[in-house]
Amino acid sequence: MNSTRDLDALIEMMAKLPGLGPRSARRAVLHMIRKRELLLTPLADLMQQVAATARECLNCGNVGTTDICDICAAEKRANGLLCVVEDVADLWAMERAAVFNGRYHVLGGTLSALDQIGPEQLRIPKLIDRIESEEISEVILALNATVDGQTTAHYIADQLEDRVKLTSLAQGVPIGGELDYLDEGTISAALAARKQV
């Protein structure tokens, strides 16, 4: 009988998280065990609750605990601005910067011929539907400055040409950079200096 089988399984599972390797996962698990009442038990309860209630917003693709997220439900955000991002981490990065007061659309990735990801595998058809059904006056393409991100931005720009004003993030976002790793000041500068596509 292996007395550490469950601990080893927990460490192995934690090591799969971004930013954690086996050594960091081991340290985290040991710390949680030492602080069982303060950390481990509440964390386990919260993880179980989130596993049962978390879902994607039916409108934008954000993650929350209701069918329509708080951002989509907020009337003050229905101002005609729609910011298109690659994934939820990018949306959350924009929200941390607290400089955008419109709504979002999460694509769920980028176009990639190598990975056989086309528009139908992303939320691009839903984006086009939203442009037609909601009173959208400007679409801000806030995609990562990578080859796939820029390819996706050009595809969307072609699809939305002459339907709506298109802009993209400008200065502040380095080539090859990803929104989730940028600080709030950089995101703020990039959003303020967006340019027409």
Strand order of the largest sheet: 4-3-5-6-7
Quick one: how many beta strands?
7
| Euclidean distance between termini CA atoms | 63 Å
Q: How helix-rich are the residues, as a percent range?
A: 40-55%
Rounded mean pLDDT score = 90
The SSE order reads HHHEEHEHEHEHEHE
Class derived from helix and strand content: alpha/beta
Shape: elongated
Largest sheet: 5 strands, mixed
State Rg: 20 Å
User: Could you list the spans in which at least 5 consecutive residues all have pLDDT below 50?
Assistant: none
Q: How many individual helices?
A: 8
Q: What is the strand content?
A: 5-15%
Please characterize this protein's 3D structure.
- This protein is an alpha/beta fold.
- The protein is built from eight helices and seven strands; from the N terminus they run H-H-H-E-E-H-E-H-E-H-E-H-E-H-E.
- It has helices at residues 5-14, 22-34, 36-53, 70-73, 88-97, 124-133, 147-160, 184-192, and strands at 55-56, 63-64, 81-85, 103-106, 138-141, 165-168, 195-196.
- A five-stranded mixed sheet has the order 4-3-5-6-7.
- Helix 2 (22-34) crosses helix 3 and helix 5 (88-97) packs across helix 8.
- The model has no long low-confidence stretch (mean pLDDT 90).
